[in-house]
Amino acid sequence: MCGIVGYVGSRDATPLLVNGLRRLEYRGYDSAGVAVQEDGRLEIRRAEGKLDNLVHVIAAQPLSGRSGIGHTRWATHGRPSEQNAHPHVDCGGVTAVIHNGIIENFEELKGPLVKAGHRFTSETDTEVVVHMLEDELKKGMSLEAAALAVVPRLEGAAALAFVSAKDPGKIVAARVANAGGVIVGYGQGENYLASDIPALLEHTRSVSFVEPGEFAVITANGVRFLDRGGKEIEKTRTTITWDTVTAAKSGYKHFMLKEIHEQPRVLSDTLLGRVERATGRVVFDEDLKLTDAQVRSLGRITLLGCGTAGFASLAGKYLIERLARIPCDVEIPSEYRYRDPVVSKDQLVVSLTQSGETVDTLAAMEEARKRGARLLTIVNVIGSQAARMSDDVIYLHAGPEISVASTKAYTTMLVDLYLFGIYLGQRRGTLDPNAAAKLLAEVFHLPTLVDAVLREEPKVKALAYRYHQARDFLYLGRGINYPTALEGAHKLKELSYSHAEGTAGGEMKHGMNALIDESLPVVAIALRDSIYKKMLSTIQEVRARAGVVIAVADDDDEDIAEHATEVIRVPHTNELLSPALAVVPLHLFAYHVADRRGNDVDQPRNLAKAVTVE
Ligand code: G6P
User: Fold this and answer.
1) Residue 148 CA from chain centroid, whole number
2) All domains in the chain, ordered by first residue
3) Angle at which helices 263-271 and 408-428 pack, to 10 degrees?
4) Whose CA, among 237, 336, 400, 413, lies 20 to 30 Å from 533?
5) Which is the closest atom of ligand 1 to the Cα of 308?
6) Residue 500 has pLDDT above 70, yes or no
């Protein structure tokens, strides 16, 4: 949560900072603020609510300076308000801090500061840091020396950046544990700081990642990196290959709609080079280091991810068990890390994460690593923390996903899990070559099938408009489309703010049937797969109780119309691949319900894209 940006150079910092924040607004939109600095002056502007409010404040009271920091907030400590907006300043108004994360010991730190006469003006955990810095800077220290003295005393997780009129033309950034990215971007005679790559793309492709426990000292002419002892460290530079066009809305009303429509292309990208022509075997690039012998000796796989990535993990269990016959379990990362889990030497932990920054996922990975598991991550953001801490990495190649609600990252995760299942099956001998060849031929056809589903958008939109006022929705799926039902319900509630629940069709009779009446739309995924007949029975049971059924069915299913109230049709594909197709109309449905209701689709209330706090 929260986005941080920084700029030091010879240009006017404010528009650059505001632009950077615009790219990071998906991380939080409770308030925004900037601090710029020049000639021994520090100026601050802050506003509650979305970034546009800050833009108005700046237009009314312009500020200028050639270096500065900016912040967009997702509130943790202290309600969303101007007073709690970052940057926070010290008593003299000369030093400012921005922060992403939570400082767990802020109350302990605050007591002595208050006693010593520091005046606090916010309810945040962050403000203690700037008053601590103030004390250090009074001793005549440089900004980095003050940061080195203060930051090690903070507990919790934090990404921080400081500027001070006492040490002008400089930003010091620091990272404590996993609190979201701290990325330095290199320019010519100017340098940048950001939590995430989209904020840097306009200016540079050359970046370095600040790791937990490290500091960056950024000036116009160079960047130094320090460890927590103040010793200089060497950093490698990474080149980012995304372009700015993929990070923009390109004429779509919302990023979410653009990202849904990008799927045929990004699914093709994720498939690129993944099958070796000569052997017909699935191959991943050099970031996957598992040897064939290690694959054969795997005894168990644990899959984990949060939110949408968690539903992909569940689909992964169905896929890997079916294709590679390895027992899999699925874990909620925030539970796993505190549960004293049992980990064996032959266990692989597969984490799924779009951002590679979700703190619960990272903490669960750390826990598994401590207990001896090998870590593999299926992740979108190149060079993200999840990628850096894993033994093996499979990249989604979905390009930047900006909308808070994840769509293309979900379908590319499903495709990568499908490929990974085949990869394991081929090396363990659980898949014969003909079966593998057939499965692979079908996945290469998937982008065309998704394109066909997208052409049906007007019908899905009409349905969304018909049902947009319903207060509750129920989603049913079975087998590998049980996770699809969970994801469909999840998307609807996060975007439309209606209550929606997903369940396994077979569970209806054990409780959910009690909810059915004519006001409850029931979305049932009823593809012609191995449990189609069972799903039809469940649909009939719902209809017999006056329920309204919206079925997602194969396009050549002539019987379904007799059973369901409404039908959304998708082309037929094999069962294991079908979740990547069936979810597309569900994402479109949630989008259009929310848009019809006038909700802010890309930035749903109380949510953020990269959840970097616990
Ligand atoms: C947040 C987002 C979800 C996302 C989840 C996991 O809750 O709102 O859309 O699925 O985080 O994010 P990750 O980046 O780890 O996939």
Assistant:
1) 30
2) 3-239 (3.60.20.10), 245-444 (3.40.50.10490), 454-600 (3.40.50.10490)
3) 30
4) 413
5) 10
6) yes
297 and 324 Cβ atoms separated by less than 8 Å: no
Whether 170 is catalytic: no
**Could you confirm whether 609 is annotated as catalytic?**
yes
CA nearest 27: which of 1, 53, 51?
1
Amino acid at 330: V
Amino acid at 474: L
Task: Please report the pLDDT score of residue 423 as a whole number.
Answer: 98
Phi-psi sector, 570: left (phi>0), alpha (psi -120 to 50), beta: beta
Taking each helix axis as running N to C, give the angle between helix 408-428 and helix 578-596, from 0 to 180 degrees, rounded to the nearest 10.
170
Question: What tens digit of pLDDT does each residue of 186-236 get?
Answer: 999 999 999 988 899 889 999 999 988 999 999 999 999 999 999 999 999
Q: Which of 412, 402, 456 shows the shortest CA–CA distance to 250?
A: 402
Quote the tokens at residue 187.
Answer: 């320019």
With both helix axes pointing from N to C terminus, report the angle between 127-138 and 106-115 in degrees, rounded to the nearest 10.
50
Q: Residue 367: what pLDDT?
A: 95
Task: Report how far ligand 1's centroid is from the alpha carbon of 75 (Å).
Answer: 17
Say if ligand 1 is within 6 A of residue 363 CB.
Answer: no
- Length of the chain in residues, anyone? 614
Contacts of 259 (CB under 8 A, 6+ apart): 401, 402, 403, 407, 408
Task: Characterise 525 by phi-psi region: left (phi > 0), alpha (psi -120 to 50), beta (else).
Answer: beta
2, 317, 408, 493: the catalytic one is 2
Among 199, 588, 195, 178, smallest CA distance to 405 is for 588
C-alpha torsion 216→217→222→224, nearest 10: -60
What 3-state DSSP class applies to 127?
A: helix
Three-state SS for 224? strand
Instruction: Indicate the average pLDDT of the chain.
Output: 93
